[in-house]
Write a structure and sequence with these properties.
Pathway: Glycan degradation; xylan degradation. This protein is mostly beta strands. Helix content is 7%, strand content 50%. The chain has two domains: 202 residues, Jelly Rolls (Sandwich), CATH 2.60.120; 31 residues, no CATH class. It is globular, with a radius of gyration of 19 Å. The structure holds 2-acetamido-2-deoxy-beta-D-glucopyranose (3 copies).
């Protein structure tokens, strides 16, 4: 016999879906989402319930990257679940900083085995969350970045033993500290997403595939952003609001962070 609130919680999952056009980003359920794709028809990104998204792609879809997370990012612990991976893709904690301009990945899973280390420079390793991660760096010339075509640096941590099950946690601060010690400092955080990306370029044959991802928990101390839900019966997200916003009760089921 399942308790009623739990039953409703189970039924409530997978009820919300909203497709996101290529190269769009925004906020939903207090999460930031971003999806960029070379070919808007070849891959589909769908926001689902609170912190969950799904990506599906066809053969030879070209490059895409999409995910759910936060803006700005921060040195937080992030948990995730992945469901039913098919086809080749990389699954990572992915983000950007400015000053210096850095694109970073903590690569958790490499579905399909396209080698991410080609062209990267080894910078040592660290141990975090039950695995050794290898650290790499790369210089990107005239690459696509959130501030337009730029030269920037890529930082990588690549997990040697993917978890593949359960609810893994990524303690991002361990990576940021190890990177800094290897001469790879971060700047001011831009967005940070739990990302799925297709790694074959347009010229590379890639399998069709799909991946569903649930960004499981918000870290302790994480507060909802403006307009996001911050309370209500059955709500399990953060009950605090970011600076200069206050949690305002709308009704029994919904409170929202509104500007002071
Ligand atoms: C998305 O942006 C990228 C990079 O600017 C561009 O190459 C690509 O054509 C865009 N995709 C679509 C579907 O417009
Ligand atoms: C990137 O660096 C190259 C030389 O290393 C330079 O020619 C190019 O203009 C730079 N690109 C940008 C966007 O500054
Ligand atoms: C909050 O408001 C104060 C005063 O207007 C401002 O100085 C500060 O930068 C704001 N903080 C954020 C996070 O927006």
């Amino acid at each position: 016999m399942i308790a009623l609130p739990l039953l409703f919680a189970l039924l409530a999952r997978f009820t919300f879906t909203a497709a996101v056009p290529a190269n769009e980003s925004g906020l939903i359920f207090g999460y930031f989402f971003a999806f960029s794709a070379d070919d808007g028809d070849a891959a589909t990104f769908t926001n689902e319930d609170d912190g969950e998204y799904a990506i599906q792609w066809g053969e030879n879809s070209g490059h895409f990257i999409g995910g759910a997370g936060w803006t700005p990012g921060s040195p937080q612990s992030i948990s995730y679940s992945t469901f039913s991976p098919v086809g080749n893709s990389w699954f990572s904690i992915y983000g950007w900083t400015t000053d210096p301009l850095v694109e970073y990945r903590i690569l958790e899973e490499n579905f399909g085995g396209v080698d991410p280390t080609v062209g990267l420079t080894s910078k040592g390793s660290l141990t975090s969350d039950g695995s050794v991660y290898d650290i790499y760096e790369a210089q990107i010339v005239d690459g696509v970045s959130p501030v337009g075509t730029s030269n920037f640096t890529q930082y990588w941590s690549i997990r040697q033993s993917p978890v593949n099950a359960g609810i893994p946690t990524v303690t991002t601060q361990n990576h940021f500290t190890a990177w800094a010690a290897a001469g790879m400092p971060l700047g001011t955080f831009g967005y940070q997403i739990v990302a799925t990306e297709q790694v074959g370029g347009a010229s590379t044959a890639t399998n069709a595939g799909s991946l569903s991802v649930l960004v499981r928990t918000r870290p302790a101390g994480f507060c909802a952003i403006e307009y996001a839900q911050c309370g209500g019966e059955g709500f399990t997200g953060p009950n605090c609001c970011v600076s200069n916003t206050t949690c305002v009760q709308n009704n029994q089921f919904f409170s929202q962070c509104l500007a002071d």
